[in-house]
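User: Here's a structure from my thesis project, written as structure tokens. My advisor, Dr. K., wants to see whether a designed sequence matches the one we expressed. Can you design one independently, without my sequence as a hint?
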């Protein structure tokens, strides 16, 4: 089954750095490659025409912004197994709060801002080997919001609508 997720899209330089990290880790961990992103709101099973105007309004309220990265973490679920928590700053809180106000009727979603680097279940030794000598930038910047058709098959994820923040 496919759902729509609302992603924060990384600015070009941040995107290139994190995409390189994801590609390196996917080779070592034998996992699918995906675009770096922060999910603002996930697994919406509603008509995309109800999502598009809200995303368009959201990008018109903010400029491109950045946030700081916390240290690399691991988790116990496929969808949150190797990730970088983000500082939940004012911009992230505002964007999530707006999504929550608009979409909570369709689905509850708990926002935990992070950038995933790999999806899957990994043993600690494998993660240690794969992440040894990784250099993680201290900050990243977001340049827009995308609506992505998602599902269990990562290789079939597809951006179906995207808008950019204003650049300062």
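Assistant: Designed independently from the structure alone:
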């Amino acid at each position: 089954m496919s759902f729509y997720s609302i992603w924060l899209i990384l600015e070009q330089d941040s995107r290139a750095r994190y995409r390189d990290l994801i590609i390196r880790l996917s080779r070592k961990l034998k996992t699918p490659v995906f675009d770096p992103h922060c999910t603002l709101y996930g697994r919406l099973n509603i008509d995309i025409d109800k999502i598009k105007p809200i995303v368009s309004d959201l990008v018109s309220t903010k400029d491109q912004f950045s946030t700081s990265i916390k240290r690399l973490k691991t988790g116990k679920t496929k969808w949150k197994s190797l990730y970088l928590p983000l500082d939940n700053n004012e911009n992230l809180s505002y964007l999530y709060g707006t999504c929550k106000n608009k979409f909570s009727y369709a689905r509850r979603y708990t926002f935990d801002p992070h950038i995933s680097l790999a999806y899957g279940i990994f043993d600690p030794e494998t993660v240690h080997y794969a992440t040894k000598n990784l250099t993680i930038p201290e900050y990243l910047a977001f340049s827009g919001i995308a609506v992505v058709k998602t599902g269990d098959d990562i290789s079939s994820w597809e951006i179906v609508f995207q808008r950019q923040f204003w650049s300062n």
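When you compare it with your expressed construct, this may help: Residues 12-29 form the longest helix (18 residues).
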